[in-house]
Write a structure and sequence with these properties.
Largest sheet: 5 strands, antiparallel
Distance between the termini: 7 Å
Main location: membrane
Radius of gyration: 38 Å
Shape: globular
Number of strands: 17
Protein name: SSD domain-containing protein
Structural class: alpha+beta
Helix content: 55-70%
Strand content: 5-15%
Subcellular location: Membrane
Number of helices: 32
InterPro entries: Dispatched_Hh_regulator, HMGCR/SNAP/NPC1-like_SSD, MMPL_dom, SSD
GO molecular function: transmembrane transporter activity
């Protein structure tokens, strides 16, 4: 590249006459001094390069041996990941250390310690000993006897109604036990009404082909086709699917349309037309169990006249195969159960979660083998076409494999982490892409230097390649790893933290493995190749084989060079130089539009489901959980109470003393508040007044406002029992005070006796928590609120702030021992806490990653203007990527949060390469610098984008949703990163890029650097001035 210099080197480097434009004498002197220093330094390779050149096999053997040893340690001593054992793959998808989590876990630990350390009922033996009475006196109070009879009758009634057989005459019925039925969601394929003759026949045929062979007898199947025939007095089993007639179908539809208003008004039994009362059971079963919510409901918005979906039921006990997982794997695994008109779009089976977890475990490993291998294969094929080296392809495979093994060993044995979530496997795909790109950059740099500076010795070329490539690879590796590591700081979710640690370790390890492994492999390949060629030349200088090899090499070299020159040295620079205004307008507008999509409409939203999606939407089991679990009245009727429960706990400090990186170690220690003293008068009076105030709050359910508070009620109970001769004989000392505050004897002896007599069969707002010696250690109140549970973050945030504001005001005025009291909704706010952690963690991760990227870019280029331009391009590429996933319908869940943080690490790479190349260009005009940056790093940037894009594309057929989402994300981020780095960043530099040393930073105490730094390479063995070059 000496043609770009206005330099004339005379006999020696010390006599330099290099006079760049706008350069003064001081800068020329500084340039001469630097050139002399570099002349001495560069031709002497460092010790590591010398060792690599002489003993490459030692490095290779040592690294392979170390990797093998680590693999053996992992195989024998590392804990088995939970997703391999079929355990819950969503384990760890929870917050740790947050206010909500600490309170929920403290309450959970209190419940788990019941009958161990803390008790809601006192120790009866201590009570008897204190009162000196026989045990038979205790436990036969009128309250306990009546309560026992009441609970017995209630349980009997609930059990009988729960297992009641729904059926009538010859019509089918089923047991109303949700866990013991198969449910199939049926839909028409072409959007027609299911209640048509053609569709009912097709529905019947589909059931006959798919479902009936699985059950015995046929009575185990309950579906709408059976109801239609039943109302026509036709037995489904005997007449089959040809029994449907237009008349029977029309009659069924007329009955349902006529009687629907009476079903919704609950007047099927009367007053209603005789047609409805006669068929009331069929009508009720149709609307309650088979038709979706709102079908034919009068007065509802958009009344649905056509039946678009319906449920069919199969009794589990009638299945020929009782194992639900075997049934699913054998008959429904394809997810395409359909005929010409009807299809099964979703299903629910007994033990569905267990079946999903087992399937996920199988798919996770199977897809890992298939599609990660496919991704690696595509990358290696691209590399081989570009590098024309099979040996480098094999070296890349080994490099990535060793990096993953070393990363796992550090994760388990150095960091001493035992939890390895399945999301950590996603780091493997990123490692494949990043590792291949790093080796490609190093090898490409090596080939360029060997071609352009053929006068250098082997060691000099290797040293120069090492210095050039390693710096670039370190910058990109550090930014990517930093983006991962920020998750450990920004997030409170266990899985995200573990992923950040493992992925960051993997990228850093890959860098160190690459800088040792790749040079050693290159030396070995060169020596083996030179030895092979030398032996051929010694035998026959004109051998046909040698000529063939040379022709093949020249052919590929020429083709590759021409393509590279055409694309990167001519086509791309021409697009930027001639159409820079077009790119700036289009890409800026696209970025602004993406901001509109993210922040306004449709807007990036938090997850709306508490269940983490494991499979794509077309999976029958997943589709049920996502779209149909609340689509039918029967399902809604059996949902849990939507009101938020409220627990208020005193006497304990909320803490999470477990390992926050291990969901299996939630912690067990309960920290008592040493200032809590229930026996103090001030404590009792404040708790009594607080309970009265709490009941009157607008957010408390009206039913609980009628319940008495515990402390005042204790006095009434004392007075009541003191008037009963049976108890008055041993409760004499308890009959002294009937209002709080109570005496010490009443609290320590009488109250435990009273609670034992009642047996907990009275509803009071407030429960005393005892230890094993009947000492009061805490107090807990429970009420239901009228605040509804919601999956909406905004709604739950409003509810939480309402409760938090009230309790914060009340606890400020509490006595010292009660100020550590806390409220919790137990698990009600858990999902809300996860949503908040994802939102806060993602935002903080983006800010931290951008800050790291800015710092690294500034240090690398030492130019503020270029750094600002780069950050603009990076931010726009990230915004466009996020907007794309919003338009794809993604919500900001665990996977999306990880990928967004990863986007920064991957987005900066291309801009860094272009920015550094622009800065190092000797040209003075911005458009010439842009052209030179394209010619220098354009091919490497394009290949890096292509390989990572290919890795993402290879994951698209995967059955695990996390794999497909990561693949989609990689394709998006590579596309936008390359486009914005190539066209926006370069276009901005083209028109307002810095010239010369404009906005160039210089470190204090450093030598004054020349305006355009170049590396001087001198061959000391030759006095020819032509061998003194710049790079």
């Amino acid at each position: 590249m000496t043609h770009e210099l206005d330099t004339r080197l005379n006999r020696r480097v010390s006599h330099v006459s290099y006079v760049p434009e706008h350069e003064d004498d001081d800068e020329l002197l500084a340039l001469e001094e630097e050139l002399e220093a570099v002349t001495v330094e560069i031709w002497k390779p460092n010790c590591f390069i010398r060792f690599v050149e002489r003993f490459p096999y030692i490095i290779i053997i040592l690294m392979l041996s170390s990797a093998g040893g680590c693999a053996a340690l992992l195989y024998f001593y590392a804990p088995v990941p939970n997703f391999i054992t079929g355990d819950d793959p969503t384990k760890g998808f929870e917050t740790r250390g947050t206010e909500i989590h600490k309170r929920a876990w403290t309450l959970k630990n209190l419940n788990e310690h019941n009958n161990v350390d803390y008790f809601l009922m006192p120790n009866i033996s201590i009570v008897l000993e204190e009162l000196n009475i026989p045990q038979k006196v205790i436990g036969f109070g009128p309250f306990q006897q009546n309560s026992a009879q009441y609970h017995s009758k209630r349980e009997e009634r609930d059990l009988s109604s729960h297992n009641k057989l729904v059926g009538f005459g010859s019509c089918p019925g089923f047991i109303l036990k949700d866990s013991n039925t198969y449910k199939f969601v049926i839909e028409p394929r072409h959007g027609q009404d299911l209640l048509s003759l053609a569709n009912l026949k097709a529905w019947c045929e589909l059931e006959s082909e798919v479902i009936l062979p699985l059950i015995s007898p046929i009575r185990g199947l309950v579906s709408i086709p059976q109801l239609v025939l039943c109302m026509s007095n036709i037995v489904y089993k005997w007449h089959g699917c040809e029994a449907f007639t237009e008349r029977s179908v029309t009659a069924f539809k007329e009955i349902m349309h006529t009687c629907a208003p009476h079903y919704y008004s609950k007047t099927l039994s009367g007053p209603a037309p005789a047609l409805c009362t006669k068929n009331s059971q069929i009508i009720w079963q149709f609307f309650m169990y088979m038709a979706p919510i709102g079908f034919l409901q009068p007065g509802s918005v958009g009344v649905r006249e056509s039946l678009g979906s319906a449920l069919s039921y199969v009794d589990w006990s009638t299945m020929r195969e009782l194992d639900p997982e075997k049934v699913y794997r054998k008959s429904f695994l394809s997810n395409r159960i359909q005929n010409d008109k009807i299809r099964i779009v979703a299903m629910n089976i007994p033990s569905q979660d267990d079946v999903k977890y087992n399937l996920f475990s199988d798919y996770l490993l199977d897809d890992l083998k298939k599609y990660f291998t496919l991704a690696l294969g595509l990358i290696l094929c691209i590399m081989m076409l570009y590098t024309k080296s099979v040996a480098m392809v094999l070296a890349t495979v080994i490099n990535v494999s060793m990096s993953f093994v070393f990363a796992c060993a550090i994760y388990f044995f150095v960091c001493r982490l035992t939890f390895f979530p399945f999301i950590n496997l996603l780091a493997g795909l990123v490692l494949i892409a990043v590792g291949a790109d790093d080796i490609f950059i190093f090898y490409d740099t090596w080939k360029q230097i060997r071609t352009e500076k053929s006068q250098l010795s082997f060691a000099q070329s290797l040293s120069l390649s090492y210095k050039h490539a390693t710096l670039s690879i370190f910058v990109t590796s550090f930014t990517t790893a930093s983006a991962f590591f920020t998750n450990t700081i920004s997030s409170t979710i266990t899985t995200i933290r573990c992923f950040g640690i493992f992925a960051g370790i993997a990228i850093i390890v890959n860098f160190f493995v690459m800088v040792a492994w790749t040079p050693a492999c290159i030396v070995c390949m060169e020596k083996l190749w030179q030895g092979f060629i030398g032996s051929l030349r010694s035998r026959s200088a004109n051998s046909m084989f040698q000529k063939s090899v040379q022709r093949v090499e020249e052919f590929f070299d020429n083709r590759t060079s021409k393509i590279t020159e055409l694309a990167c040295a001519r086509f791309l620079p021409a697009l930027v130089n001639k159409l820079w205004y077009v790119w700036i307008i289009i890409l800026t507008s696209l970025g602004v539009g993406s901001c509109f999509v993210i922040f306004y409409k449709p807007k990036l939203q938090l997850p709306k489901s508490q269940d983490f999606q494991l499979f794509p939407d077309d999976n029958l089991l997943e589709n049920w959980d996502l779209n149909f679990i609340k689509s039918f009245p029967y399902q809604i009727q059996h949902q849990q109470n939507d009101r938020i429960p409220l627990y208020v706990v005193f006497g304990f400090e909320p803490k999470d003393d477990g390992n926050w990186l291990d969901p299996d170690d939630p912690g067990s220690a309960i920290t008592e508040d040493t200032n809590f003293d229930f026996y103090k008068n001030s404590t009792q009076m404040w708790l009594a007044n607080f309970c009265a105030d709490l009941k009157n709050q607008s957010f408390v359910d009206p039913h609980f406002r009628q319940q008495p508070c515990a402390l005042p009620k204790y006095g009434d109970l004392f007075q009541q029992f003191c008037s009963i001769p049976r108890y008055a004989s041993f409760l004499k000392q308890c009959c002294t005070q009937y209002k709080p505050p109570y005496t010490s004897h009443q609290l320590k002896v009488c109250l435990p006796a009273l609670q034992e007599i009642l047996g907990g069969n009275i509803n009071l707002i407030g429960n005393i928590i005892y230890n094993s010696t009947n000492t009061v250690k805490g107090f807990m109140m429970f009420v239901y609120t009228n605040l509804n549970f919601s999956l909406s973050y905004d709604e739950m945030d409003k509810n939480y702030k309402t409760l938090k504001g009230y309790f914060a005001d009340k606890f400020v005025t509490a006595p010292t021992g009660l100020r550590t009291g806390f409220f919790t909704g137990r698990y009600t706010f858990t999902f809300f806490d996860v949503q908040g952690a994802i939102a806060r963690g993602t935002n903080l991760s983006i800010l931290l990653s951008i800050a790291v990227a800015f710092g690294i870019m500034l240090i690398t280029t030492m130019n503020l203007v270029i750094t600002l331009y780069a950050i603009v391009a990076i931010m726009f590429s990230i915004i466009c990527t996020v907007a794309s996933i919003v338009l794809l319908g993604w919500h900001l869940n665990i996977i999306e949060s990880i990928t967004i943080s990863l986007a920064i690490g991957l987005s900066i790479d291309f801009t860094v390469h272009y920015g550094v190349a622009y800065r190092l260009s000797l040209a003075n005009e911005p458009h010439l610098r842009v052209e030179e940056s394209f010619s220098r790093v354009g091919p490497a940037v394009a290949m890096a984008a292509l390989t990572t894009f290919s890795a993402g594309a290879a994951m698209m057929p995967a059955r695990v949703l996390a794999y497909t989402k990561l693949g989609t994300f990689l394709m998006l981020v590579m596309t936008f990163s390359w486009v914005y780095a190539t066209f926006l960043f370069q276009s901005i530099c083209r028109i307002i890029g810095p010239k010369g040393n404009c906005c160039q930073l210089r470190c204090a105490g450093c030598k004054k650097a020349p305006p355009s730094h170049r590396t001087l390479v001198v061959n000391p063995d030759d006095d020819d001035d032509s061998l003194i070059t710049f790079s």
